[in-house]
Amino acid sequence: MEEITVSDSAAADTASSLPRKRPADEKRDQQLPSKKPHMDNEPRPTEVKEREISRGAEAVVSVINFLGRKAIQKQRLPKRYRHPELDAKLTSRRLQQEARVLLRLRKEGIRVPAVYSVNVKSGLLIMECVPGLTLKELLQENQQGGDEVMRKAGRAVAKMHKCDIVHGDLTTGNILVHDGKVCIIDFGLSGGNGTEEDLAVDLYVLERAVVSAHSEKAQPLNEAFLVAYAEELRRPAVLKRLEEVRARGRKRDMSG
Amino acid sequence: MVAPSIESKTQPSPAQEQPRYILGLEGSANKIGVAVVSTQGQILSNVRETFVPPTGHGFLPRETAQHHRQHVVPLIARALKQADIHPDQILCIGYTKGPGMGAPLRSVAVAARTVALLWRCPIVPVNHCVAHIEMGRLVTASHNPVVLYVSGGNTQVIAYAHNRYRIFGETIDIAVGNCLDRFARVVGLPNAPSPGYNIEQAAKKGGVQNRKFMQLPYVVKGMDVSFSGLLSFIETEAKKVLAEQTYTVEDLCFSLQETVFAMLVEVTERAMAHCGQSDVLCVGGVGCNVRLQQMLSDMAADRGGRAFCTDERFCIDNGAMVAWTAALMFQAGAGAVPVAQATCTQRFRTDDVYVNWRDD
Ligand SMILES: Nc1ncnc2c1ncn2[C@@H]1O[C@H](COP(=O)(O)OP(=O)(O)OP(=O)(O)O)[C@@H](O)[C@H]1O
Ligand SMILES: [Mg+2]
């Protein structure tokens, strides 16, 4: 995969004008001079400054103006600590994997950001900006309604798993929630071939993310997630496997 | 066990002051360490003996336990002598409850119970992983970093929240130190002073610019890592490429280090991003590897933070870490148990400990 630019109309069908909740979003909005869509031949608005919103382990994520529309730019920068050969390989592999999976899941009708542009050489992925909060922020903020969101997340993850796609970093920071709808992001570490073990490890990672960041109410949240997940997936063997993965986790703390 | 031949109990203590020293005993793996620290965290002595299995051998629990039983009394005597204190000045005894290897843990717990009864001191069971973290915090004066804990038996990424050291990421199969040790055996590197040290030296022998990098499986799942696939790959591949002379042992050591450390640094950075923290503390035996320290520093610097590392005295298992953690626990008003309950356990998770001595 060298470079894809998805046509503007494909992008347009995903652009959302729904109200935005998070304060960061409001700031992003203020920096946009107009919401009028720009045509390809129209000059790009130059007065819009890029704004960094996250610096993760892999990428710098910013809000940018792409063809007159608010978009998310995910740039994977070289890592100084990593051997250059290894670094280059990981960066391009993950970027391509993320773009592929986004396109694939979208085709399957699962809510993920629309891909606008991919440039492997410069480590750039430009995609739809999904409004709303991360599940992590949402669980930290509101006291009620967490169970319902977790049920929705459970169904969304099951749908993804039905396509034999394993996320690889399924944490509450990588699930966006807006207007009751759930959108999974960050597919750079995705892969696997849909074995029960792979799916169960995905579930285990999410379960632990909920426990470590939202410990007081983790139990009912995880329960709600798993019930909805199981209903949607209809593969009881995965939950059985999850028990095994958990047991392995408990046993691990030994020397040797 | 023979009664310690330390200065006799009848001898009066130098001054009738409050006891304010803690004796710590560590022996969860192949090292036995004894130390004396003050309630303020001053390290008065920190002595250690290591059981080194012959080249080609892994852990030998029975021999290790025997080694510890042989050395514990002379080490206690040495620690007290170096610290220049009398048993009367000891406030409490700390020992490692777990996690670790059963036989070595038990042999040190017996010694701890014996001196506690002999000197009528309270006894405090300590979690080995928490002890590594508290030692790192004491020595580097880092306040609330994300912790990368890497040793022969453990690989964890930890962050403190609400009175617990929570595990954000860990190995889903073998520990990084175990992976290094087993690789060293395959290519015939000796166990002395430690397999990891020999890999580090081989990797930089004659300059890293002369190394040829070999692509190895790189398995990161979110904040978790996996080394077993990589280890079996390099185990089979090593024999082949060494016979064909396409790579040298030094090339393999270099490639292995670059790959496994990059995995560790990546998951550490992910946890830092997740917790919104920019400092990292590296503890555990693998943490004295200078290349790992350098990679952590590069990563932290790019995030506007710092990497805190210690040298082999404190990052390799030692008595001071246990003594200091016992001091924290005891002074926070909990920690001491009746001698009959001063047992040990092979499994003891870092997040099982309620950290009542921190109030942030
Ligand atoms: N399409 C999007 N729409 C809205 N916000 C997004 C979108 N993509 C990413 N974000 C925001 O940016 C943050 C980071 O994005 P992402 O998870 O893709 O990269 P990363 O976290 O840097 O990678 P890693 O998890 O490996 O550290 C998300 O938590 C989210 O807040
Ligand atoms: Mg992310």
Please characterize this protein's 3D structure:
The complex is a heterodimer of chains A (256) and B (360). Chain A is 43% helix and 17% strand. Chain A is of the alpha+beta class. Chain A has two domains: 48-128, Phosphorylase Kinase, domain 1; 133-250, Transferase(Phosphotransferase), domain 1 (Orthogonal Bundle), CATH 1.10.510.10. The longest helix of chain A is centred in the middle third of the chain and has 24 residues, at 84-107. With 360 residues, chain B is α/β, with parallel strands linked by helices. Chain B is built from ten helices and twelve strands. In chain B, the strands form three sheets. In chain B, strands 3-2-1-4-5 form a five-stranded mixed β-sheet, sandwiched between helices. In chain B, helix 8 links the parallel strand 11 and strand 12. The longest helix of chain B is centred in the last third of the chain and has 27 residues, at 249-275. Chain B is globular and about 65 Å long. The model of chain B is unreliable at 1-12 (pLDDT under 50). At the A-B interface, helix 3, helix 6 and helix 8 of A face strand 8, strand 9, helix 7 and helix 8 of B.
